[in-house]
């Protein structure tokens, strides 16, 4: 027999023996995957659950977080930025070739402004990429950092706001920057906390103290998050 025929016969015998062995042995059901359960906590309790750590920005590069990728629906031709804009529009835009958005209206809650067109908006990472790096993401794999940078699994993670407010915020945490609208404060504190809890990110002392100050004035505000495995 030729070498390929011998190899094929050996493989067939191996498969036959393996099948027989599995047939003779009792079948074991695969262990069910643990369900990830959404969490809802009062804001004070949620802030108290955030782990403390010293921040370290050594080695940070924005390119360590790949974004914007093909989004949650690759077949729609829209990247993550465009999908967030479509999800948050209060007046839906027209979608042209290459996912070009025309018209549409959005609400920037940081500064309480109605915004149009889409090009006037930034998509803000609730916890900026540099801040995430400082708080634990430096230890992540590139794939996890990409998932973080494009996270549409929780509404608080990415938010469409005026370019002016987003650039004013830059990479600052709540100890350094808060939205200019006083009415946005409780929502912002809750969404920042939710994002850090979702991704298992830490806070430094000044950040946690400011979040506790916010929580003290936001009784009745809940923090909703689903932990990422």
Structural overview:
37% of the residues lie in helices and 13% in strands. The model is unreliable at 1-28 (pLDDT under 50). Strand 4 and strand 5 form a beta hairpin. The protein is built from eight helices and eight strands. The strands form four sheets. Strands 1-8 form a two-stranded antiparallel sheet. Strands 2-3 form a two-stranded antiparallel sheet. A two-stranded antiparallel sheet has the order 4-5. The protein is an alpha+beta fold. It is globular, with a radius of gyration of 24 Å.
Describe the protein's topology.
Blueprint: H1 3-24, E1 39-42, H2 43-48, H3 80-88, E2 94-96, E3 100-102, E4 106-108, E5 113-115, E6 121-125, H4 129-134, H5 142-149, E7 158-162, H6 163-169, H7 185-199, H8 205-216, E8 222-225
Antiparallel strand pairs: 1-8, 2-3, 4-5, 6-7
Quick synopsis:
The chain has helices spanning about 5-25, 45-50, 80-90, 130-135, 140-150, 165-170, 185-200, 205-215, and strands at about 40, 95, 100, 105-110, 115, 120-125, 160, 220-225. It has about 230 residues and is α+β, with helices and mostly antiparallel strands.
Total strand segments: 8
Largest sheet: 2 strands, antiparallel
Mean pLDDT: 88
Return Rg in Å. 24 Å
Task: Output the strand order for the largest sheet.
Answer: 1-8
Q: What is the terminal separation in angstroms?
A: 52 Å
Beta-strand share of residues: 5-15%
Shape: globular
Helix content percent band: 25-40%
Please tally the helical runs, counting DSSP H or I stretches of 4 or more residues.
8
